């Protein structure tokens, strides 16, 4: 299974991010490419423990049962709801967002599993570093497919 702690998988994601352009159009959803990059960057902040959004009531109720959706091998469904704290609706600058995300991905991989957050995911709850690494890859893959790369 792909994992953002694996150098090959991270390099593959970075190459796909580089294939995006400000003109890239989504195949589904409402975000433009810059907003998507910002969203992925904000999600990366959660995995790195930079931000710690609180768990919502729905996540507390069903998050543990739904947890495998985050890190199993099945693709994420289109138009799945997101964590409200990382919903990006305002305009963003594409190149800035792309570079910030790439820097965070490189830092995450370099820091390794030991530095992954121990704070619970806002919906799914407590995750191991292995689950975070797999889930981050899956989340990035989902959004890059959304833009055809």
What's this entry about, in short?
InterPro entries: DinB/YfiT-like, DUF1569. The protein is mostly helical and 149 residues long.
Secondary structure elements and pairings:
Blueprint: H1 7-18, H2 33-47, H3 57-66, H4 68-71, H5 94-111, H6 129-146
Organism: Paenibacillus lautus
Pfam family, one: DUF1569
InterPro entries: DinB/YfiT-like (IPR034660), DUF1569 (IPR011463)
Structural class: mainly alpha
Helix content: 40-55%
Number of domains: 1
**Annotation field: number of helices:** 6
Mean pLDDT: 95
Low-confidence stretches: none
Percent strand:
under 5%
The N- to C-terminal Cα distance equals: 19 Å
Radius of gyration (Å): 14 Å
Q: In total, how many beta strands?
A: 0
In sequence order, what are the helices and strands, one letter per element?
A: HHHHHH
- How is the biggest beta sheet arranged? none
Given the C-alpha coordinates, what overall shape results?
A: globular
Which oligomeric state applies? single chain
């Amino acid at each position: 299974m792909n994992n953002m702690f694996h150098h090959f998988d991270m390099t593959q994601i970075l190459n796909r991010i580089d294939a995006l352009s400000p003109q890239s159009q989504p195949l589904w959803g409402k975000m433009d490419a810059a907003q998507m990059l910002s969203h992925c960057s904000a999600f990366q902040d959660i995995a790195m423990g930079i931000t710690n959004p609180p768990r919502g009531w729905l996540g507390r109720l069903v998050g543990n049962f739904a947890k495998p959706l985050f890190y199993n091998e099945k693709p994420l469904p289109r138009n799945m709801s997101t964590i409200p704290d990382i919903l990006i609706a305002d305009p963003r600058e594409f190149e800035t967002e792309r570079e910030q995300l790439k820097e965070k991905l490189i830092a995450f991989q370099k820091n390794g599993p030991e530095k992954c957050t121990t704070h619970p995911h806002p919906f799914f709850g407590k995750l191991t570093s292995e689950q975070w690494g797999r889930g981050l890859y899956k989340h990035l893959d989902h959004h890059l497919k959304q833009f055809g790369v």
